[in-house]
Design goal:
The complex is a heterodimer of chains A (410) and B (400).
Chain A (H helix, E strand, L loop, with lengths): L1 H16 L1 H21 L15 E7 L5 H12 L2 E6 L4 H10 L5 E5 L3 H6 L4 E7 L5 H34 L4 H18 L5 E7 L13 H19 L1 H9 L2 H7 L4 H29 L9 H25 L3 H18 L11 H7 L3 H13 L5 H25 L4
Parallel strand pairs in A: 1-2, 1-3
Antiparallel strand pairs in A: 3-4
Helix pairs in contact in A: 1-11, 2-8, 2-11, 3-6, 6-7, 8-11, 8-12, 8-13, 8-15, 9-12, 9-13, 11-12, 12-13, 12-15, 12-16, 15-16
Chain B lengths: L1 H16 L1 H22 L8 E6 L5 H12 L4 E5 L2 H9 L5 E4 L4 H7 L3 E7 L6 H33 L4 H19 L4 E7 L7 H22 L1 H8 L1 H7 L4 H31 L7 H25 L3 H19 L10 H7 L3 H15 L7 H24 L5
Parallel strand pairs in B: 1-2, 1-3
Antiparallel strand pairs in B: 3-4
Helix pairs in contact in B: 1-11, 2-8, 2-11, 5-6, 8-11, 8-12, 8-13, 8-15, 11-12, 12-13, 12-15, 12-16, 13-15, 15-16
The chains are: A alpha/beta (410), B alpha/beta (400).
Chain lengths: 410, 400
């Protein structure tokens, strides 16, 4: 046991003396967590801005009357999007061209006869140009629809009052028809707020009342911690190849240290580094970014222990089967990036097809991310993350057995 | 010149024969593009959204109608249940959301009395639960609007002359039918015209992004050999021959650039063959963009190697720098979705302009004129990086 501890301590000293390794272990994941959290800010943990992203909408108002301006003023007053007006007779074509070239995401074109048709209570059609490459138009279109629903209701009530009167008592004379329409439209305008049917969203679990959890630091912090522990853990497989190449491993085998002790020590120092890195990142997320890691510290410890053990096992396995440090480096990159993508560390698994979700659970990252969601979002206790921890432990055992079988000093 | 060319060809040969370089050059960008296509492309799309529906007591008619409406949305997998079961299913993640219909919902619509539909959301579901909430919000808005229009019609007609009970029934029956027909053809319609960009998929977006990301990694590995040659002593041996330091640097630069050009062009061809990416109808513009991008990446990697003092430092500093720039510049995610301030920062990165150029080719079928801004900016960056690296390599005496 003492020999194992000596080897572990020696390796830890080497790592601690290397400033560039410390930079990799801590500075990079912290910077990534911070940048991603800011990029997807809008909720999900403290630290990020809670201001929603405001998208721009290009508008070409060709209307000859006042209603076009009124529509734009109503959209602007709703305060969800910024209007980017284009003037001139060919504003409609310019707007389309801007969207087509990708300079703008969406454009709304109000036709020249918009006011006239509304005055005649005739149906009128606006044109919305959408760039299919972008997501922004879905937001801008929704903002327009919210304003239009009210205008539509006013218009529909006006037409409906006339038509209903005709249904009951015959076609009204023009003056009466106008009076009916005006009264009905005015009724809608006056009584629009508050709406009779409303929606109250209730987020269950421990993040009740918080914003969308898949965005912001609540997602980026656990995801980046898992990703960098994996990436650095697998990159540490290179050390084993180097030890073999430099014959230090062979020399160690000539000393009275058992093969099993050397393997355990190799697993051990990787495990210690992984745990230190994981918990420094967890502390940073909690203290600096306001991430709440759940109500079960024991559950969090169990998940991190099993995950890091799996990574340590895979690292030694990779180092054992790689023929050169370049090969180990390439394999580490391929494996870690693939597992991050499949396991839902870069985007939530819930939005992917079922087959992809199944593939995501064929690697440790998928299970670790599930456990993090259970702890951070759902507030599960130890029992709630036991299934994920068990699977991670099985991964750890599998990788360790394979590493033991393939471990060599030559 | 010939000596520099020999050094470049030797470097190129070594890199192309190295299987690990090929992994970085081709396997990783193609593999990650395929994974993203698997996640977001194809016909399978997003998996269905599990929704629990809870109706009011004695409200079977309303509950069945709501269940019928939900079943018409292909994305939803709805199940009628009790509130307790719904809460348990949503809290445990078995359902993404639950819709709880209140007592008196029909009265709220007809008479304007307040009613609140509750949407219970899975705390770990950021997207599906939000989709359900948005759909229910739309329903609530339409129901409120329909109700107020009905009351406005009654109010206007009744103001002219009181309505008898028989007329009320007649009008109510007529109005349901009329509203149903009118709502589908609103007074103010929006015609949505999808701008005629080209038929592209998720591969077309991410293949160029990953190509730029891994091009930088390949270039870093290539630039690192400046230090490796010094550390292994081959540089010293080379200097003993009639090869000057400037020839050595020129050879290294040429070798890096050739490798970069080969990688980008190969990734373009493989993107077409494997993912069916259509790079547009301007092959000259595509080739120019590829060659300019290669120049930018090669010069950027050399400048990183010039700043570093050892091969290991080049690896560490360079990888960190490349990852951060790729994250900021949109090589790892669609930067169009980021706030405007974030996008402004992105403009200072090489990745942003490289990705922007390729995107214009693929999405908008741009020609040389269309990508001139990107070409000029990347060329300017290349000149600055190249100048800086020559200056650093000679002044800082990295190669001594």
């Amino acid at each position: 046991m003492k020999k194992i501890l000596v080897i572990i301590a020696h390796n830890l000293r080497l790592i601690a003396a290397d400033r560039s390794t410390l930079f990799w272990l801590l500075a990079m994941p912290i910077a990534f967590t911070f940048v991603l959290g800011l990029a997807f800010s809008g909720g999900g943990g403290g630290g990020g801005s809670t201001d929603p992203v405001r998208y721009g909408l290009t508008v070409a108002n060709l209307d000859r009357g006042p209603q076009g301006e009124a529509l734009l003023a109503a959209i602007e007053a709703a305060g969800k999007i910024d209007l980017l007006p284009i003037d001139g007779a060919d504003a409609g074509d310019t707007a389309l061209e801007l969207v087509q070239k990708g300079d703008r995401s969406a454009a709304l074109v109000i036709p020249p006869d918009y006011s006239e048709r509304l005055a005649r209570r005739e149906r009128v059609t606006l044109t919305f140009h959408r760039n299919p490459e972008r997501m922004n138009p879905y937001v801008t279109r929704q903002a327009i629809d919210e304003v239009l629903t009210r205008l539509r209701a006013e218009g529909t009530a006006g037409i409906g009052a006339r038509t209903a009167y005709a249904e009951l008592r015959g076609e009204p004379p023009p003056e009466l028809a106008e009076r009916l329409s005006s009264r009905a439209s005015a009724y809608v305008a006056e009584n629009w707020d508050p709406p009779s049917v409303t929606v109250a969203a209730e987020r269950l679990g421990r993040t009740a009342g918080s914003d969308v959890p898949s965005m912001g630091f609540n997602h980026s912090s656990p995801a980046m911690a898992l990703m960098y522990v994996l990436l650095n853990g697998l990159m540490m497989s290179i050390a084993l190849v180097d030890e073999r190449r430099e014959r230090t491993l062979a020399r160690l085998f000539t000393t009275p240290v058992a093969r099993s002790s050397i393997i355990v020590a190799n697993l051990g120092w990787r495990f210690v580094i992984g745990m230190l890195q994981m918990w420094i990142l967890i502390a940073f997320g909690g203290l600096a970014l306001g991430v709440d890691w759940g109500d079960s510290p024991v559950g969090l410890v169990l998940v991190t222990v099993t995950y890091v053990a799996a990574v340590a096992g895979l690292s030694v396995l990779l180092g054992s089967i790689s023929r050169s440090s370049r090969q180990a480096q390439s394999a580490a990159l391929v494996l870690s990036l693939t597992m991050c993508a499949l396991g839902g560390l870069w985007w939530p698994l819930e939005i992917t097809p079922k087959l992809y979700q199944a593939a995501g659970h064929a690697v440790p990252t998928g299970w670790a991310m599930d456990a993090m969601h259970n702890l951070v979002s759902r507030g599960y206790s130890l029992a709630g993350v036991a299934p994920q921890a068990l699977v991670l432990a099985l991964f750890a055992i599998g990788f360790t057995v394979a590493a033991t079988l393939t471990f060599r000093h030559e | 010149m010939m000596k520099a060319l020999h050094i470049a060809i030797k470097d190129l040969r070594i890199r192309i024969r190295d299987r690990n370089t090929l992994v970085l050059m081709l396997l990783l960008p193609i593999g990650l593009t395929a994974i993203i296509g698997f996640a977001f492309g194809g016909d399978s799309g997003i998996s269905s959204i599990g929704v629990a529906l809870v109706g009011p007591e004695d409200g079977d008619l309303l509950t069945n109608a709501a269940a019928g409406l939900l079943s018409q949305v292909e994305l939803f997998d709805a199940e009628v249940t009790t509130e307790d079961e719904a809460r348990e299913a949503v809290a445990s993640g078995r359902k993404s959301a639950a819709i709880v219909l209140p007592e008196g919902l029909i009265d709220a619509v007809l008479e304007g009395a307040p009613a609140e539909i509750a949407v219970l959301q899975d705390p770990a579901s950021g997207i599906k639960a939000r989709i359900v909430e948005t759909m229910v919000e739309r329903f609530a808005t339409s129901a409120s609007a329909g109700g107020i229009v009905g009351r406005a019609i009654f109010d206007a007609v009744e103001a002219e002359r009181p309505i008898t009970e028989a007329e009320r029934w007649q009008l109510t029956g007529w109005m349901f039918q009329w509203m149903y027909e009118t709502w589908s053809e609103p007074a103010i319609a929006i015609e949505e015209a999808e701008a005629e960009t080209r038929d592209v998929d998720v591969h077309s977006y991410f293949a160029p992004s990953f190509a730029v990301l891994f091009l930088l990694f390949t270039m870093l590995a290539s630039a690192k050999t400046i230090h490796e040659e010094r550390e292994s002593g081959t540089y010293g041996r080379l200097m003993a021959s009639p090869v000057g330091r400037s020839t050595f640097i020129a050879g290294k630069l040429m070798g890096s650039y050739a490798l970069a050009a080969v990688q980008v062009l190969l990734l373009i061809v493989l993107g077409s063959l494997l993912f069916g990416i259509d790079w547009g109808s301007h092959p000259v513009a595509v080739i120019v963009m590829a060659l300019v991008t290669a120049a930018g990446a090669a010069s950027l990697a050399i400048v990183i190697a010039s700043v570093a003092r050892t091969a290991r430092q080049t690896d560490n500093v360079g990888t960190a720098f490349i990852l951060m720039m790729s994250l900021l510049g949109g090589s790892m995610w669609p930067i169009e979705q980021a706030p405007a301030s974030f996008q402004n920062v992105a403009r200072f990165t090489f990745n942003y302009w490289a990705h922007s150029g390729f995107k214009k080719l693929v999405f908008y079928d741009a020609g040389l004129a269309g990508i001139s801004q990107e070409i000029l900016i990347i060329l300017a960056m290349s000149i600055v990086f190249f100048g800086a690296s020559v200056l650093l390599l000679s002044r800082r005496q990295v190669l001594t």
